[in-house]
Write a structure and sequence with these properties.
Length: 128
Amino acid sequence: MTLSVESANEYINGFTIDNEDWNDYENEKKQRILNVAEDVLARKYPEYIIPDNAVFEFANVLAIAYNDTNRLNKQGIAGFSITGVGSFNFKDTLRVDDESLIPKKTLDLIGEANGVQLGGRIVKWTVM
């Protein structure tokens, strides 16, 4: 299913605080971000219905993660400066997969739509 950029614009501008990066993108890039957000969620939660607003929440997070500055961080650059403008240093490099960027609100929206409670924690074995 292909979500519309118009619906995403309406939701993101009405229900998110940090939406400047989303609004800076052209419609073609917004559609690619929506496609990736929907694909990541569908692969992570194949047994659940993924509501549109959950995809929109995640798409906005991806828009921030892939803005010009954060994209450099994601590529492993520790810092850079622009003469006369400013200097940017990243505390940690953001070398993570898109799945790890899924926000709690997205999990809550998927959970509400399916009558389950999803959490961000994963049970793992450990040796003590």
